[in-house]
Amino acid sequence: MADSSDKKIAIDTIKSEMRKCFSEVGSFSDLELDAAVNLIGIKKFQKGELLLSEGDNAAQSYAVVTGCIRQYYLVDGEEKTTFFYTEGQSIFAPNSTSNRIPAKYYLSCVEDTTLTVITLTNQLEMYRRFPMLESLSRNSLQEELHNYQEMLANYITTNPEERYLNLLKHRPELLHRVPQYQLASYLGVTAESLSRIRKRIFIK
Amino acid sequence: MADSSDKKIAIDTIKSEMRKCFSEVGSFSDLELDAAVNLIGIKKFQKGELLLSEGDNAAQSYAVVTGCIRQYYLVDGEEKTTFFYTEGQSIFAPNSTSNRIPAKYYLSCVEDTTLTVITLTNQLEMYRRFPMLESLSRNSLQEELHNYQEMLANYITTNPEERYLNLLKHRPELLHRVPQYQLASYLGVTAESLSRIRKRIFIK
DNA sequence: TGTCGTTCTTATCCTAAGTCAATGGATTAA
DNA sequence: TTAATCCATTGACTTAGGATAAGAACGACA
């Protein structure tokens, strides 16, 4: 099998993507780019693997390169899905180096998944050496915050059927990548209800 | 009336609070503190005033000193409340200097309210001169993002009655400061339903 | 004091979603 | 190939919440 060389090539592709991304926000020498990129790791996970469990002290932030990660809470023994992270989306560590709070949720791979990983310590190191990257990070945090505000607002202002139609419109690929009962939970209804909603829409 | 001197005193108090806050994250000279604080304005609004309307290009971030701000969307002529900002909470501008998107929501004063205000340009100026403050900002953005993730997760995993009980537990003061029909909308139900929920809980 | 507007509550009826149980299809494992 | 498992669908029944309309409580204010 050409497995290890395949992996090698893929990782090199990702690293050069990262270099390109950093080059866009500031002018760095090749050595500096090396240093920055070397603070970031790349990890592969298999379908079903858990990145994080309730109670863990999350000290890493991730970004999805390929694949799909599901965030869920365990409430009365039931999995309540609250988000799906796909290509290009970031998962920020829920705590900082100063305050370490155990996670209340799980992160599980819906598919085989490749992620970039950066530890909290490396993150600080990176900002110390390359302040431009802290600006970049602040900006993407502000955007991400804005996204979440919109998602919350959207959730409050719509009913399950509207939410399903929204999903169909804005993230249609999810419907094929994710089992329906997980989608249902994400939309805030039971699997049975989602089935009925789909039927209702189909008839219309 | 001692109105203008009252106001003066209040503003001085707020400014000294800000100096204290900045001093905690880095060592600044008095002149530097002056410079930083002078980039931030203080504004008073009356109950009912609108800070922001749908379609506006928000170029300011706020923090509530005293009072209460309601965020709401107008959907089919109906106000859908999506958040209440009270003392100590920040309202981040939904867009950056680069991308200017018109706001989709309104910000309205539930009570007479005093806010600190910083424009996007002053924000950049501040980070340029005092990089420590950019770290501070990044950290609070990360915390705020985490808050929103939890709020969304909480909204997805609970029903209206549970959400009301949560509010009772975590922000009880809101129940007295905000009219019930606005709370209802925030909880994702009609005013009539919230009335029934309250009755149900009271009987138990 | 009485009137008006706003907010909250109550009643009725209807619909959407939850619950429980059963079925059938699809995929995987033996 | 046959079980076994997982998942989506359907049906019957219950319940919470939406829509509408009407009345009660409250406060502002002339």
What do you see in this structure?
The structure is a homodimer of 204-residue chains. The first copy, chain A, has 204 residues and is an alpha+beta fold. The first copy, chain A, has a single domain (3-157), classed as Sandwich (Jelly Rolls), CATH 2.60.120.10. Helix content of chain A is 51%, strand content 22%. Chain A has 8 helices and 8 strands. The first copy, chain A, has a 4-stranded antiparallel sheet. A 4-stranded antiparallel sheet of chain A has the order 2-7-4-5. The termini of chain A are far apart. At the A-B interface, strand 4, strand 5 and helix 4 of A face strand 4, strand 5 and helix 4 of B. Chain A binds a DNA duplex (30 and 30 nucleotides) through residues 159-161, 179-181, 189-200.
The total strand number of chain A stands at 8
Structurally, how many domains make up the residues of chain A?
Answer: 1
Helix content of chain A: 40-55%
Examine the secondary-structure arrangement and name the CATH architecture of chain A.
Sandwich
Rg of chain A, alpha carbons = 19 Å
Ranges of chain A where pLDDT stays below 50 over 5 or more residues in a row are 1-5
CATH superfamily of chain A, called what?
A: Jelly Rolls
Strand order of the largest sheet of chain A: 1-8-3-6
- Described by the principal axes of the CA atoms, the overall outline of chain A is elongated
In CATH, what is the class of chain A? Mainly Beta
Chains forming the largest contact: A-B, 38 and 38 residues
| Alpha-beta classification of chain A | alpha+beta
Mean pLDDT of chain A: 89
Biggest pleated sheet of chain A: 4 strands, antiparallel
